[in-house]
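Appendix B, Record 12. Input sequence as logged:
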Amino acid sequence: MSCTLTLKRSFPELESCLLDDLAAACERDPFSRKWVLTSSGTLAGHIKNRLANKIKADSTLSLGGIRIVSLSFFASRLFEKVFRKNSAYNSPMNDILLDSMVRNLPESSPLAKVGSIDNGYSLLRPTFQDLADAGFGTENSELLLEAVRESRISARELAIVELYLELIGEVEKLEAVWSPLGQQFLSRWLEEAEGEVVSSLLSSEAGESCELFIHGFYDFTDNNLQLISGLSRLLPLTLYFPDNRRGNKVHPAFDFSAEVLENIQLRSRLTREDERTGPVPETGNELADYLDRTFPEGSREARPDLISYQKASSPRGEAISAALKVRSWIDDEGIDPADIMVVFTSAGEYLRPVRGAFASFCLPVNQVDCPVEMSDRKRKLSVLRNLWTDAAPAEWVFPVPAGQSWFLRRAGSGLLSF
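Logged structural output:
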């Protein structure tokens, strides 16, 4: 059985290795099942497109038996096959349980205020999901509580952990399946399972071999890492991970990888693969090749003509400069506006100046992948939540559409509006 950890300095390089490995696997055994497990469904779709383009470019290439899905989807489907139960990440049953538990908290509880807020239980849901994804379940509940109590955390944080453990206990009693907990059950099942059994569950035909390729991660929750560890014990598995080092020295851009790699190698049977560490392959794109060669090693090369720099005194100055440049590209060089992308670091600081400058120069703008700023309503709700947690100033002023203002003052434990 071959379990390999493939390290490259960027996801494009890892992707190239993945596609080559899939082609090689299909050549070895065209009919075996190859599972590509990605960090998200979006990345799974991207890999599918890359494979389709690879087949179009080479008509002699045959890629069969490949399934590309997110790791979470894979885990939920395998869980359903093993335990004959459906799992859900955001289950209405969990919300109903949590809501009833919050509303029944005694007044002495540090979380009692949550029950007085409409849908207050939803404030706790993200924390509970993080705890479940981190691998905390009913089996280690006593150890978790002991560790939490010894860490001298606040009474509110302790109450949150106790409520979480109470919730997952109730979920198990009702035999409802919450997918993070289901993934914990699946990982424990894999510790005792036989490779032939798991392979038959993942293959289209009994007796077929099965390979796993894991791509697109730069960190892992404990749940995911435990699942990968269990699979690496039973099936051929290759994990693609970004890392760049010379000897034992890690490049600063990859500081995050040291601890993750240590956890991967401690908890799984993956062995690091070092033979594919040659020069970066050229892509034919001058800009992409230049950036690949100079990042993250930082090798000094003459800057290509297609890269230029401009200075400005303010975000508005930068926006006007960019609009002038784009206008010249369209008018003088005939570049299609759809082929031009404007990237800025902060939506709050740059979005309004860019919109204004581009509108002044009659430039069409299609806004994509831009973080949405808080609406007035969400900002007010955020402040109310901060007031509830005693984390806000004593007085806030909110503008309203009528042009007037209203105030909230914290007086003792109550809120006064006037």
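DSSP finds 16 helices and eleven strands in the chain.
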